[in-house]
Amino acid sequence: MATPSSTPVKDCLAVRSLGTTGMAISPVGLGAWAMGGTEWGRQDDEHSIRAIRRALERGVNWIDTAPIYGLGHSEELVRRALKETPAAERPYVFTKCGLVWDEGNREGPPRRVGSAESLQRELDDSLRRLGVERIDLYQMHRPADDVALEEYWQTLLELKRAGKVRAVGLSNHTIEQLECAERLGHVDSLQPPFSAICRQTAAEIAWCRAHQTGVIVYSPMQAGLLTGTFTLERAHSLPQEDWRTRDAQFTGDALARNLRLAEALKPVAARRGATVASIAVAWVLTWPGVTGAIAGARNPAQVDGWIGAATLELTEADLREIAAAIARTGAGTGPALPPHDREGAAR
């Protein structure tokens, strides 16, 4: 579906190999977390559907979602948005498992469950909500509380062997956990948080590069902080149900440092003829081992705000200016400059 003011023109983006999965994905993928609504405040479903379709028009060829996003609602929106998309143009659909809610208390916190019975049931539910016969990438959302990693990872490997999922991965797992899983069977992908603010997962990304594990990072714009449009006033006006009101990066001194970093990205963006959001996403894509970045959007304009990152090559001077801004503002933690040896990065 076209946006009201334009005729859809399919953009062509270069693709990157997602580890050893055989899937070639666009450098940016669409994240459908906020579309679910439960942790971001009320959303407009029609705007969300148009955002999905706009991303596909702009060349994005994968969508990342999860059952817990809106307690099934995000997956259902993805199905609705793709319903009329020809099979040859359908994007890869990535989803997750391991976070289970109580239907009798939908406001309560989810449980981290990894039993084989639960994961099989979750997979069946996701297949139904998404309207597909196979999940392209099935990821354990977080480490389980009820069973050991070996048990839930073995279950995911069995689902892959059975052909119910094409590839299996881990999200929010440490190097030690990755190594434990790898001993049982190859970890196709990792999904860690990573941005110019949240840089502490650089070691996990390096591990993945060494083990031919694909990496799709989430929150490259730090949930809006690095878009160049987020303000102190916006932070103070977030609805109470928005999870960011309870996040340390959105309060106090951390918020002030983060906003100063976003401001410092504006000269880089102006010089490159790009948005601040694109600079932030391009920064994570420069990191060796990162295959793709998950960028959220709740309307077509937000897609247009970051899509330029897919074709933007930051220079060494750009990277050093950003590293200097990180040091000057004191925003976040972790290495501020990608390794000098970027040859072989997943571009």
Describe the SSE topology:
Blueprint: E1 16-17, E2 24-25, E3 28-31, H1 33-36, H2 45-57, E4 62-64, H3 73-82, E5 92-97, E6 99-100, E7 111-112, H4 116-130, E8 135-140, H5 149-161, E9 165-171, H6 175-184, E10 189-191, H7 202-210, E11 214-218, H8 232-236, H9 252-264, H10 266-272, H11 276-285, E12 292-296, H12 300-306, H13 316-329
Parallel strand pairs: 3-4, 3-12, 4-5, 5-8, 8-9, 9-10, 10-11, 11-12
Antiparallel strand pairs: 1-2, 6-7
Helix pairs in contact: 2-3, 2-12, 5-6, 9-13
CATH architecture: Alpha-Beta Barrel
Strand content: 5-15%
How many alpha or pi helices? 13
The total number of structural domains is 1
**Share of helix, binned:** 25-40%
CATH fold annotation: TIM Barrel
